Amino acid sequence: MPAPARLLPRLIPPLLAHRIAHRIASEDATRPLWRHPVTIAAAALALTLGAVPLLPDGDDQQGEIAPSGETTAGPRGAVGTGEVTPEMQAEIERVLAEGRTLDRADGRTATARASVRCATFDGQRYCLGFGWTNQSREALAARLETRPTFGGTNERTGDLDAEGVLARNSARSATARTDAERAELTMAAQSVGKVWMLRHEIQGVELPADFAEKHPEVSTGVDARGGFGESYPTKAKIFTSKVARAQNQTYWCGPATMQAIGWSSQGKRKTQAYWARRLGTSSAGTAISDMVRVLNNKTDYDKKKHAGPYIVLDISDFTFKQWYRLMMRHVHDYQAPVVLHPVLLKQYYPYLDDDASGHFQVGRGYDQDPDGNRKIGYFEPWDQSKFDPSEPAIERVQWRNAYKAYRANLDHFQHNIGV
């Protein structure tokens, strides 16, 4: 029996509505929604959609490929976006109020201590700039206060280092800082269910008795995977190598990483300049909190069928086995990338000609290699030969020793990752 005809047409296709929401969310203009130009344009488009074909959105889309990870069912333990409770909102306001101390901070130590402010959501601690962590506020402030050990001869590839974090915090107006921190804390509060679930699955942390009631956005019936990785296939990877491109500027590892992730999600390539604008990348680099923000706003990998809302997770209390299991969870179960956040040192990455700074890479595979050392697969945006032809070229597609990648992550002053 044929399905009955719909009485009224859908005014705006779901994909277009999704893009409109992203554009409104990504623009910082403070205007009522009904007065936003995108909203007005959408209303006009709804009246003429039947007669006029859709036009390109002007975002430098090139190189169409089929989006990866075309799945409909979410993985076991899939996570959606949670609700911000009144208690969480009060905690957000408390942390924002503490930000006034930044306006009075004088000197590096005072600025570092005022910059690191933490909120507790449902028993988990989130600290601005560092992410979800079990470390104390004092320990994190000490990391931020310590001056970088690399000198002026080392390469700078585009991660926002401690100097950059402090300079940005000092330069922002009180209003701009509050707006950015409110958005960061709200995104964190909405993802606390995922934090609990990852710590349960990866680290064996027991879930609270009322977890299912408080976090209906998290799938039930989840058990922690035991062992090192015996329950996973020996090897898995995601993403075609076509999306891997070298960064176009010395400080654009963030935009190049997002270009690969966005291209794989959307099926079309957008320029690194497009991603740099959305990330707020400056010559000082890109913050990992902005990488996660844009990944959540501009790709489909934050959906429940993949990884759920991406978070910044401090892995300083993760063993290598737990860190590697997190890679396998993301690649095999979530079919979603990991935002790797190492420091580029020759002792960990032998293809480097010089030691370099903090960095971003696209984690997209693992190989347990029973007869050798376990490996991870990633896209490397840094190509030193592009900026100094006398130095050896670096390949985009890499399969390297996983333990060295773990150590490089721990040697970064923030010790965190985007998952």
TrEMBL record:
Region Disordered, residue ranges: 58-82
InterPro entries: Peptidase_C39-like
Occurrences of domain Peptidase C39-like (ranges): 246-369
Protein name: Peptidase C39-like domain-containing protein
Taxonomic classification: Bacteria, Bacillati, Actinomycetota, Actinomycetes, Propionibacteriales
